[in-house]
Amino acid sequence: MIAAMAGFAVEDALLKAAATVLPIGQILIVFGLGGAAVFAALIRISDAALYTPDVRSRPMLIRIVFEITGRLFYVLAIALIPLSTATVILQATPIVVVAGAALVFRERVGWRRWTAIIVGLCGVMVILKPGTDGFSALSILAVIGMLGFAGRDLASRAAPAALSTAMLGLYGFLSVVAAGALFALWEGRVFLLPDSASTMYLLGAVAAGICAYSSLMKAMRTGEVSAVTPFRYTRLIFGIGLGMLLFGEALTPSILIGSALIVVSGLVILWRGKKAKPPV
Which segments of 46-138 does DSSP mark as H helices, in order? Predict the structure, then answer.
């Protein structure tokens, strides 16, 4: 999970850099095609089929919808708001995943972890600052993206066990292509020929995304959801660090306070998750 978070942070930074030159729809399509091609090659190398009836299972269809939602709105967020802000908002994903695991998969989540979930959501509200002059409606894009990723992770947990990580990756990246096509039709911008810098950004984002995606799926499918997901908070370190280093972003008091609340809630969820006994 930690490796996945480092990879996703690098991917975010590279996509944000590419978005300064290329249309977002084009970025999503090229990024999705690159990732899908690599996972398709891995599947064929293993002599497996690129399609099985399990792909049309209900969890996979739900997963694709959430994948499209998460990818589209989060890429819009990192393109339009500071990377550090989008990264911190995204850290509410483990909170939503743990709550969803309790409601959907009946994992035991006691009152202490429910309290931590509420504290973490309060941290997100501190960052959003609704009702104040500092509130930015664009931050809602990151919130929608976060909810999409949480739904994707929960659906991945319910996906048929016969589907390999490479298969999930293939259809996950094809969902990114679909998200890009939908946004390109709505945006109506003409695609551009990438320059050398933009090409390197996109290639680097694909490589980082493939490594991160594989690590995430392995973590979500082999570990207990409520125990594994708190390690997603390491993305705070990578995302904020890259935002400051590459884009000159500054840490605001709201980001610091909100991050602290989210991290504390994550540590409590992790601690209580280790102590919790499996349901009888």
Answer: 58-80, 83-90, 93-104, 111-128
* 280, burial (CB in 10 Å: exposed 0-12, middle 13-18, buried 19+): exposed
Give the separation between CA 66 and CA 270, rounded to whole angstroms. 25
Q: Which of 202, 210, 208, 194 is nearest to 37 (CA)?
A: 210
How does pLDDT run across 177-206, given as a tens digit for each residue?
999 999 999 888 889 988 899 999 999 998
Pair of tokens at residue 118: 């509420």
Could you read off the pLDDT of 210-222 as tens digits, one per residue?
A: 888 788 878 877 7
Name the one residue in this structure whose structure tokens are 């991050």: 259
Tell me which amino acid residue 58 is: R
* CA neighbor of 11 nearest in space, from 149, 185, 119, 122: 149
State how far the Cα of 176 lies from the Cα of 213, in Å rounded to an integer: 13
pTM (2 d.p.): 0.82
CA distances from 267 to 89, 108, 165, 228, 271 (A): 17, 17, 28, 11, 6
Higher-confidence position of 64 and 273: 64
Which string of b and e fits 16-30 if b means at least 16 CB within 10 Å? Answer: bbbbeebbbbbbbbb
Is the four-CA dihedral 42, 180, 208, 259 of positive or negative sign?
negative
Residue 134: pLDDT band (50, 70, 90) is: low
**Angle CA 134–71–73, to nearest 5:** 30
- Residue 6 backbone dihedrals phi, psi, to 5 degrees: -65, -45
